## 1
Amino acid sequence: MDKGVDKILLVAGARPNFMKIAPILRRLTSMPSAPRSKLSWKLVHTGQHYDYEMSQAFFEDLEIGRPDYFLEVGSASHAVQTAKIMVAFEEVCLKESPDAVVVVGDVNSTVACALVAKKMGIRVAHVEAGLRSRDLTMPEEINRMVTDTLSDWLFVTERSGIQNLKAEGRPEAAMHFVGNVMIDNLYYQLAHLGAGGAGEEKLSGPYAVLTLHRPSNVDAEEKFREIMGAILKIAARLPVYFPVHPRTRQQIEAIGFERRLDSGRVHLLPALPYKPFLRLFKDAELVLTDSGGLQEETTALGIPCLTLRENTERPVTIEEGTNRLAGTGREGILSAFEEFISDKSKKGRIPELWDGKAAERIVSILLGKPG
Ligand code: UD1
């Protein structure tokens, strides 16, 4: 059995990290007092995301307390952003001398902090280990591979992750199939959702929800226009609500597309905090997305999802869940939409261990108890 830890640094940097770190923090603070008194933890926010809608609003919504450290790294090229996180995080590690660093997901903050910790002889726990798209043009795939190579605990969300890690020769003793903290958070938030706030009127009639932010879909004007062309066709049959990520907003403004979308029944919304977004997508007829987490959340809720990518690192959402890979070409997206229309019954089932208890298992293992 692994030697348990006493002092942990938890790292969050970008929007999808906040949802994954929240259940772990919740578990730590609600633990029975005996194991809790042996353990201390601090939260580090790297500041990779910094807009109110992308960061602070999530802290409020997810009930995460103020971070103990805010590194304010902001946006930059990958090399500059990763390097700035590393420099700032090394100082935190020197000051705190933790015996473990917990990183989640696959963003630049994940890999940067894992690399710093490991080089300082601090053990690394990676939550959401083992996912692979096999697409090295995705920055997240590089981040996932490097982080998993460095990690002492590999906390895995679906069985494909274990197979991938074994194929890469990672030690089996480090692998723990624990379920999915993203889904822990989803169930918790659903139970505490309450009514909408001001400006959140309940939508009547069927609708779809779209999210789009991958550089490969958004940054090149031609690709973005192609995807949006398909979305406009779909919107003629099912209105589309589209909370817009800052990266995507830049492209929409650059090509002057705002009016065209709005007049074509694609309703542009600002980037939303977690709860308003959940209120929106939980009642959607269909979700179209290039996000990772949303593929999982729609599967957990039985909502049909069309993934606007050529591959997914989350195959269980297709094999068992409600997800379909639509690709990023106009014809592929439209034919996946037709399939959805003719077979709305693809309800899928909830994958193994997506039961809301992943954080509990993770904390037990970190404390040195069997999972
Ligand atoms: C990052 C993650 C991605 C994750 C996504 C969720 C990496 C490599 N990518 O991508 O995996 O799915 O977050 O949102 O870590 N910007 C703002 N305000 C912000 C943050 C960003 O305006 O608070 C703008 C910046 O101008 C920046 C652009 O959005 O150029 C992209 O931000 P960045 O953090 O570099 O990557 P994301 O595309 O958000």
## 2
Amino acid sequence: MTALPNLRIDADRLWDTIMETARFGATPKGGVRRLTLSKEDGQVRDWFRAACEEAGLTVTVDTLGNMFALRPGQDMTKAPLGFGSHLDTQPTGGKFDGVLGTLAALEVVRTLNDAGIATEAPLCVCNWTNEEGSRFTPALMGSLAHVGDFTAEDILARRDAGVITVGEALDAIGYRGPATVGAQTFSGFVELHIEQGPILEAEGKTIGVVEHGQGIVWYDGRITGFESHAGSTPMHLRRDALATLSELVLAIEALAVQHGPNAVGTVGEAVIATPSRNVIPGEITFSTEFRSPDAGTLETLHQGLQAKIAEIAARRRVKIALDLIWRKEPTHFDPTVIAAVRGAAETLGLSNRPMISGAGHDAFSLAGIVPTAMIFVPCKDGVSHNELESAEKSDCAAGADVLLHTVLTLAGGRPA
Ligand code: HGY
Ligand code: MN
Ligand code: MN
């Protein structure tokens, strides 16, 4: 129980900020296309910086564009409590993925300011660069570099499909900041996020108390067959890269189903090198991923994929190269922070249940270095990474109230 049980965020103000930022990259279908380090990302970052400074926060930006907005505490010898999320979106993204957690953190600060409340520990509102991993790999890029999983030099040199580097993209929007990656310290980290799945809505629960996160393995693949005439090449002589990928996609799906329900597998990208309607595809690049909350299952899926690739490649007389480009072991969040989240939900009289996160989040990165946990709220039909993504205003406010009281518990808040 915090010392201020009746304190609540301003639900209208939070909702208005979510709707206001949705215009940066707004799509005709009502979604948001705001790829990391794009012009639209630069616009929302500028908006976010101005809003943080207007709330009295001191904003610093590191080499990879991670944004940290600091609110002083009464004891400045303490490391700040971090909270926030990301503002970049998928190509067919929505208004809430990442945005809710980042703007709810700003709303918490605005609420504390309005109420004249000081916290013992300083607070740090975060906007992490490239959580989505769609334009540049890996996902969770800025926060993973922050915790040391990748060097800033490695990340700066990564290229998108248009061969622009992260460094060039940062410079194009003015967000290659002066601060050293990883220099910002935290006493802990809390992230509010829409569930991006169907459980809370189906059970009529308002709050997910997230205790674990799935492990994730990402691969880049290349299939090399042989281009030849679509009309004159007999079926038994073909080395068809697209037919090979089609078989591999179904094999990946079958592996995930076989190891379900705690396993998922996806092929999200496939590019025929030189497509032509009357040429048998000779070369295809693709990406694929597996996820599971169980490390052993991830390894089984990995081995199963290797075996399938060897069998299909031999039978179809093609070459299949697969590079494991990113592996994040399953995340276990911190019991103290989990208890603070659950306690806040109970204080607020909000229905809640423990959860495992299917999606990846920056909190997965931070959990490797400081006590961390997450708060989920429902989204409509569990849909996300889709322009239809939607959430209820009341649920967004409830999640932000849980974030507020979790912060008060962890950072020690009292009337100034
Ligand atoms: O891939 C993920 O889980 C996250 O949405 N980037
Ligand atoms: Mn997200
Ligand atoms: Mn996402």
## 3
Amino acid sequence: MTLQIIDGKALANQIKEELKLEVEHWVENGGKRPHLAAVLVGDDPASQAYVRNKVKSCEQVGFQSTLLKYEADMAEDDLLDIVKGLNENPEIDGYIVQLPLPKHIDENKILLAIDYRKDVDGFHPVNFGRMAQGLDSYLPATPMGILTMLDRYNIETSGKDVVVLGRSNIVGTPISILLSRKAKVGNATVTLTHSRTSDLEGHLKRADIIVAAIGIPLFVKKEMVKQGAVIIDVGINRVTSPDTKSGYKLVGDVDYDHVAPNCSHITPVPGGVGPMTVVSLLQNTMKAAKETIYNKP
Ligand code: NAD
């Protein structure tokens, strides 16, 4: 068995090229250039980097983009007004509010205020509910990126035992729903594990596919993984490192160096799930511009 590294960066670049052609074709035929807006509140360095990346990716595929930046102490009501304005602005096809928000702002209140027809992050309960029922919807970007990776790398999921580590609303819970749906990439038997799971190691050892999304550096060790398993590492953890100029580096939730030799496929960090998340957001925005799922508000 040879190990195959799932190159999320290369795949994301390939999909961006495909999207660029799709945009050109759409605009040449009279379509409106897709326009994504991103709202960033505060100065969290990771959030700033994610949003910068999203805006840059829009440029690469020929989308218009708008970045709206606000101070960390902005009032919740003011953010709700911004959201209302974006809902009503016919120029904007889709938008995201970068999470996490400052503590004094109720994230759920903001996410509920986003018009589900512009919710290209797929976090609104209408999109989440439709996803759970197998109806067409904007899928949350990270789980959608994982499905695309499994699909393009021809990794069989039907009948497989999948163990998902972590039950967040943006990764663990939706990917567990998606992989158990009756769909081309789906039909798996999924176990959703979390901080209260007993015998986590026992579950992991039985898994054909592991999706790790807990945010603990190098948590999944070699002895927890079955020979030949497929590993999708969602974690992005900043750890100190004497080897880099900045003094830190990014690692996943999986102890890559020791786990990889026993796997059939594995995603690296960085360069795995991260770039696929951004590309999925672009794909959702393209669908919004084309009104593939919903008519415009
Ligand atoms: P989160 O941080 O909101 O929640 C962590 C989850 O892990 C919880 O459900 C908790 O029950 C579970 N957990 C914590 N400790 C555990 C333990 N010891 N055993 C079992 N389960 C445990 O989750 P999140 O927002 O999905 O983020 C997870 C990681 O993924 C983070 O590192 C984050 O930065 C990263 N992330 C990456 C992307 C990407 O595009 N690659 C996107 C989103 C999140």
## 4
Amino acid sequence: MVILAIETSCDETAISLVEATGEFPHATYEVLGDAVLSQIEIHREYGGVFPAIAKREHAAALVPVLEKALTEAKLPPLPHAALFPETKEAVRALLSREYELADALLDFYERRNTPVIDRIAVTYGPGLEPALWVGINFAKALGTIWNIPVVGINHMEGHIFSSLFDGAHIADVTFPALALLISGGHTEIVCMRDWGSYELVGQTRDDAVGEAFDKVARMLALPYPGGPEISKLAEAERLAGRTADISFPRPMITSPDCDFSFSGIKTAVLYHVKDREISSEERASIAHAFEDAVTDVLVAKIRKAIDITGARTLILGGGVSANTHIRRSFSNFVATERPDLALFLPPAKLTTDNAVMIALAAYTKDSEKGPDLTARGNLSITGQ
Ligand code: KG4
Ligand code: ZN
């Protein structure tokens, strides 16, 4: 089965083509095409992602990104058939708020052969609703012109599959498994007792980890997105053998639950830098101390969650799992404290938002969500 997957939940426009053969979870996958266009440069000017701008950029990028993925995939073509006027009208109705995208898609259809694709998958949440909508409406319009079904996929479930993917297979997972999902909008610990079963064990009560990284970076006058910038500064400090000369609080680290709170660390940084010039040495030291505090809390809560659930597998996923210190800390934690636990970290290329993960998650679904598919900004991993 060839799946075309579309991801537009935040600031990357991504389309992938993945061929899956055999039955999940023992299927073999081939990534035929994978195109991502990042909007980071545009959002950097504003210091963050504005949903209306993200939506506009997705609308402009979708057809070029689709063409790039299709060109890479070299799928066998079906004979070209002219579209019925009703089909064109249906496409225009679906994309009535993005008429330029409707024009671009209809023009694309005239120019390109119809590829052999069996299913379209699209992220329907969680994420920025205007950005999700443009992806969903585009998926529906493509499904209409090609006459193929569209299935909605949870973005966070995609991040889990990213971490389990070795380029050709999904790893054998021993359940129960814990997934620590850390991104710009989410920080949660999820327990999987089987494929497709997700129970929320803990979550942030305020800021997501990535959000805290981005906000602290802004206080330190570092560009958006702040996570990688903080990481770079902190790693350089560690490489130079320096220890952080400040220490920030570790909120809720000893609380009996698996919930998190990161706004306290952020506020502590704010008070530390308030109303004064900070030197570049101090900035690096703050980045280092901030990363240490966040990582300590993440590891402590995972330790607790393993004790509660008896987990045999740990999966890290989401944009923040690109962080070198966090990855190293979890590898050390498993090696020294839980050597029987299987640890899965996403490969660098699939750490941030991409559409390969959406195609992988889609192959596990047999139910198809039809035209009533709607954007769900706050969609939970449990499907609620
Ligand atoms: O999963 P993702 O690409 O998008 C969302 O679904 O939110 O995550 C983006 C987040 C941003 O907050 C970004 O600053 C953070 O991931 N991030 C990092 C690193 N790379 C990306 N945070 C810390 N260290 C990094 N190396
Ligand atoms: Zn994400």
